[in-house]
Amino acid sequence: MAQELCTLFDEKLSLRRGTLQTRLNRAGRRLPARIRAQAQLVAEAETLADHPKLALRIDHVRVARAHAEVRAHLHSIDPADRRRGAILGLLGGLAFNLLLLAGLTLAFLRWRGFV
Fold first, then answer.
1. Domain that includes residue 94, residue range
2. Which band of pLDDT confidence, cut at 50, 70 and 90, is reported for residue 18?
3. In principle, which of 35, 55, 56, 67 could form an S-S bond with 1, CB 3.0–4.6 Å?
4. Which of 61, 43, 59, 56 is nearest to 5 (CA)?
5. Global pTM?
């Protein structure tokens, strides 16, 4: 389960290195709080599964539900749309700054009497 989520983190959020816990930490606020908590549950189960006695403490039904929920959320993410949104946000900020600069320049020229 953890390996499948690592693959989805790679494909959808471009988080390529580390364990599921590392990728989850690097994802940060790109994931909603509920999904982040569910993924944390799967990551904890992954670490507990490495130890024979602690592996008995894993609630497999709960982990399977958490895995399904995280997987469904990650499948719904469109990487191209995220890139497009980031580029448009950057261009929008740049356009606003240029308009603000033009307005301030015009106000300064008017104040100095050149326009």
1. 78-115
2. confident
3. 67
4. 43
5. 0.75
